[in-house]
Structure formats: C-alpha cells, structure tokens
Amino acid sequence: MVLAASASALSLTACGVVDGIGGSGGSAAPAKGDDITVGLLLPDKDTARFEAFDYPIIKKEVASLTHGKGKVDYANAEASQDKQSRQFQEMVSKKVDIILVDALDAKAIAPDVRKAKDAGIPVIAYDRLAQGPIDAYVSHDNELVGEVQGRAILEALGSKAATSRIVMMNGDPADPNTARFKEGALSELKDKVRIAEEYDTDKWSPAVAEAHMKKAIQAVGLDNIAAVYSANDGMAGAVIDALKQAGATTIPPVTGQDANLDAVQRVVSGEQYMTVYKSFLDEATDAAKMAVYKVQGRDIQYDALTQDKVDSPTEKDIPATLVPVVSLTKDNIKETVIADGVYTVDDICTAKYKAACAAIGLK
Questions:
Q1: What pLDDT, in 10s, does the model give residues 137-156?
Q2: Which of its termini does the chain have fewer beta carbons within 10 Å around, N or C?
C-alpha cells in the first residue's frame, strides 16, 4: 500500500463525484451546513488511545470545522460486538448525518453498515477496515506497522537472530488489522528467527495475552525466549508482567504498538524495546475532516483526503487515507510523542522514571 501524504501537500483536484463512491449502493446524505451530527463508534477502553486521544481529537476537530455547531455522538463498545451493533443501530435510529466506526469485528458489523447505507447515512471505517458498503477508510499502513515491529526484533537480536527463539503474540483474529500486522511482521521475521510459540489474542485482551505468555514460558523455557513480538502495548505490558512473575531478571526485547503512556515509560526504563507510534492527531483529524466534508458535500477537499485505495473482502477500491507510522525507541521520544504534544516530559518522567529519563537525556 502507498502511504498518503499530508492533506496540506495533496493537490486539491477533484477526481470524481463523491456520492456513492466505493460501489456500495445507497445514496449519501444531502449536503448540509454546520449543524451536523457525526456518530463515532469506538471498540474498547483497554486500548488507552481511544478514550484519551481519538474521541477528544475528533470531537474538537468537528467543532472547529463547523464553527462550534457540529457535534459528535459518541459510544464505546467496551469490547462487546453485540453492544457495538446495538450502538450502531441506535445511531441509525437517531438519523445522525454520518458514522465513523472502528469495528470490533469487521465482518459482523457489515449488516449494520448496510442498514446505515439503506437509510442514506454514509459510513467511514476508522482505524480498522470494516466490511460492508463503507464509503471510505482512514487508518495507517498496517502491514508497515508489522514490518516495523519485525525489523525492531531483528535489530535487537543482531547476529544471534538465526539461532533465536521468539514468541508471537498476535491480536484479535476478528480484527482485520491483526492479519495485516502479522503479515508485515512475518515478511521481516520469516526464515530469520525461530517462532517457537504463536498465539491469537481474543479482543486484544491483556489478561488473555498474559495467560498465553505463561503457557509459552512453560513450553519454551524462560531462558530460551529471545524476544516477544507483541502486536500492541496492552498485550506487551501483560507479556512483561508474565515474564517478571516467572522470575526474569532481564526482559527480552518486546515490541508494542499505540505508544500508550505506560508503554512509553517502559521503553524509557528498558522493559519494553519499542512501540509503534501512529499519530493519533493525524488519523483522528483526517477522520473528522472526511466526515464533515462528506456531509457538507465538499467534494474537492474530501477527494484530496482519499487518494489512496484499499480493498476489503466485500468492497473494492475503497477511497482511503493512510497515515505513516514511526518506530518509537529511547532515541526518538522527544521527536515523536513529545513533539506532537501527545505527552509532556512530566507525564512520562514521573518519580518512578526520573532516573531512567535522565539517563537518556529526557528532562
């Protein structure tokens, strides 16, 4: 997949009629003014970014783009697909102008997407590529996320990689991003390390990941685990806890994703090797712009944000914007999450981490 450039760098050349793109059937909502409602459905609260960043950023951007008149109707599924389906149907019943959905289960959400489209409500898939007749998609290059994680493991293992045994802790198989993360990671790791144990983690649950890691330690042996590929930060924390409980005095390299605050602190302390920083600001801001532009019929601006194309199992050539990702390590914390205003030095360098922060010049 080709990474999207920033919206400011894109040529504002209209590339076609916006209504009904994606071959999805159902007409888009008629153009409106600033008095609009954006429905936002996020999947869980275990992933810290959704409540702390995505929702507040989208809410603020929608208000900014609509002179304070637009609003966001927000609901979090709390890791329940049934709950997300009910929330989706409530949004349709309320006749919101457009729905942004981060699907907990990409396949299961498809009938709800169809109901929205039949009601004339456009649907944009956010962060995860939902199935069904969605109008557009905003996320990151998820195969690249896995590649970045895989390369980090190889970098950490160095010349010992070929004889090293690693554990792979994949995400939720119902999340389409999981397969993309895994594909990207394996493109780097295959035939270069030994994958001793591999697990899928239902609903990205840290508790499930911790249980899996305990099994891996029993199967492989604590001292024989050279690294752990963890698909996200919540699971990385659980993996590290399991290793500590098993008696590890030195934690092998563990990857992550999302740049959660506790994960950044673990990177500072050396407990977690890296995390993938995906700019919440860029992704959420682009999503809000796409939603408002779509509802308001601002075709030129909308088309400028959706110059990439992706395929889902049910739709082809879905207009998309894909935000770049960065490998966050001890060496670039200032240039990433601090520079972007995600965290301050004080947020990261609490009393527990003062010494570790000073050691890497973070003060």
A1: 999 999 999 999 999 999 99
A2: C
